[in-house]
């Protein structure tokens, strides 16, 4: 089944565990686990040093990731963008978590992810 033919719920069933792993691995600053579901393009961008720098900065300023709620799923051929409302343990207010999930050879991979 392709991403564009899946329901939002089916896509979230795939995306949520991947995002959970990304957030847990970034909390632990575990590079190998963090890039586990990344596309080759993303693996070249997110080096061990880059991940450490980014994680230390957000943890110092915002704390750790807390709860997350899905907001929207946008589908197109070969990809789905998932948007969540995200909270942190120290920073007040609501943030945006987003992921671009792509399909490559029957596997779902992260080709972009950000929390802002």
Termini distance? 31 Å
State the CATH topology: Nuclear Transport Factor 2, Chain: A
User: Tally of extended strands?
Assistant: 4
Low-confidence stretches: none
Largest sheet: 4 strands, antiparallel
Give the C-alpha Rg: 14 Å
State the shape: globular
Structural class label: alpha+beta
Q: What would you say the CATH architecture is?
A: Roll
Helix content: 25-40%
Work out the helix count: 4
The number of domains: 1
What is the mean predicted local confidence, pLDDT?
Answer: 97
The main sheet orders its strands as 1-2-3-4
Description:
- The chain is of the alpha+beta class and 116 residues long.
- The protein has four helices and four strands; from the N terminus they run H-H-H-H-E-E-E-E.
- It has a four-stranded antiparallel beta sheet with strand order 1-2-3-4.
- The longest helix has 21 residues, at 8-28.
- It is globular, with a radius of gyration of 14 Å.
- The mean pLDDT is 97.
């Amino acid at each position: 089944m392709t991403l564009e033919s899946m329901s939002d719920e089916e896509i979230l069933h795939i995306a949520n565990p991947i995002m959970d792993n990304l957030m847990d691995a970034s909390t632990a600053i575990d590079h190998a686990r963090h890039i586990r579901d990344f596309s080759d393009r993303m693996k070249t961008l997110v080096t061990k040093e880059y991940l450490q720098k980014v994680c230390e900065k957000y943890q110092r300023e915002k704390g750790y990731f807390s709860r997350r709620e899905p907001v929207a799923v946008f589908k197109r051929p070969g990809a789905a963008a998932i948007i969540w409302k995200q909270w942190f343990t120290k920073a007040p207010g609501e943030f945006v978590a987003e992921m671009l999930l792509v399909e490559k050879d029957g596997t779902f991979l992260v080709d972009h992810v950000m929390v802002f």
